Amino acid sequence: MTQPTLPFLPFSKPTIDEATIASVADVLRSGWITSGPKVQAFEKELSDYFDGRITRSFNSGTCTMEIALRIAGIGPGDEVITTPISWVATANVVIETGATPVFADIDPVTRNIDLDKLEAAITPRTKAVIPVYLSGLPVDMDRLYAIAAKHNLRVIEDAAQALGSSWKGKRIGSFGDFVSFSFQANKNITCSEGGCLVVNNADEARLAEKYRLQGVTRTGFDGLDVDVLGGKFNMTDVAAAIGLGQFAHIDAVTAKRRELARHYFACFGADFESRYGAQLPVADFDNSNWHMYQLVLPESTTRASFMEKMMALQIGIGYHYPPIHLLKLYRDRGFKEGMFPVAERVGRLIVSLPMFTAMSKEDVERAVDAVKSVLG
Description:
By secondary structure, the chain is α/β, with parallel strands linked by helices. Helices cover about 40% and strands about 15% of the residues. The chain is built from 14 helices and 13 strands. It has helices at about 20-30, 35-50, 65-70, 90-95, 115-120, 140-150, 200-210, 235-245, 250-270, 270-275, 305-310, 330, 340-350, 360-375; strands spanning about 55-60, 80, 100-105, 125-130, 155-160, 165, 170, 180, 195-200, 215-220, 225, 295, 350-355. The strands form 4 sheets. It has a 7-stranded mixed beta sheet with strand order 1-9-8-5-4-2-3, with helices on both faces. A two-stranded antiparallel ribbon has the order 6-7. It starts with 17 loop residues before the first helix and ends with a helix.
């Protein structure tokens, strides 16, 4: 069998410049490697980016959502509505607080939560909603917040994939209620691991600080008390140094990803969907940061077979995401097949094509040629 001559094209790959690597070395030499001046500087950069809103950093984009729920007072007896198509953390954090996760099916075009179905799922026990911006594409923010205001709900935006995304010219995170971002390794901007939470006022910021470090409040040199049950969620200066180096390029990163997405559409062509039976993403170049470029495969194709053939052609493929309600933890809580049919179809057939800042247009062309070859 002839071996492939082209190098493997991964699904995702972080780009870390030499200046950032040097800044991490400086932190390591400084002797202050846990939360310190770099974390404070990173939080200031983030706050400025979000038009002055208070922002606190953490060691993941998962704990940020749990902490937002706790600040909002969500707990046992409460319901929180979210989407079945997300990383399982989005629903797990609801259970962590003792509240009950409730799912609403997704829109077949945007693949985000269907806001009509979200509103229909609201009950007297509903206290919050967690919308997810899949691939960096926001939901209709005007409608989302109108629904939240009408029903007196808190909103915890799972914007893990949406740093650099916008809504009608306003950056995601610069408005709204709680907004949670992730800096995990495959995100547009990474700290290797990490996250941040945008809050509404100084009181929420102080609570966030308590929750991220065991609930501790310090007063003076030897004063210490604990009045909430916190955890160990603080970001390190090592991670913040990476974040600062990455964040300097946020606008260029977003522009490059939009350029790559445009080239994907151009290469697939206007007749791709009708000819191959697959569904392209929404061609949004104003709001989305294009964290991922995702296809929904035709029903006649099995994803495992498609992924295997793409890998044989040296093209990396991601799978984001299996429907949360069909995972065993959630089946054991009473969820079952047939409850959210659109999410189940999309979750069975969705794939993520290579998308990262260092990609070239030739890489996009390779990926598209491979898709057409496999589906054809």
